[in-house]
Amino acid sequence: MAGLREELWRTCVISGLVGLQGGSRGWRNGIRANALAALLFGLGHFPQGWTGVLVTTLLGFCLGSVMLVHRSTWVAVLAHGFFDALTFLILRVAQTSGWLEGMHARDF
What we know:
Layout: H1 2-21, H2 27-43, H3 49-70, H4 73-97
Helix pairs in contact: 1-2, 1-3, 1-4, 2-3, 3-4
């Protein structure tokens, strides 16, 4: 559900930012709006530190780009869901294999 909620947020914000730019709903306006929406999304993750801001900004920009290219929120929702599932799978494998032993949050 997180992917759906975030993609709906992203769709509304990008549409609103494109509308604020005036003029047409052209590709350049969409990219600029996507970049600003991704930055706002990333800054919302500031409690995770600058790495969290950077990662979520990049991920937000990529997912917004998927929406713009495919002209569909649902493609981005599916991409987000697969990303989240793969992340949980990798974390589980890392945990069960012992890769994470001895690591602490301060190490990142």
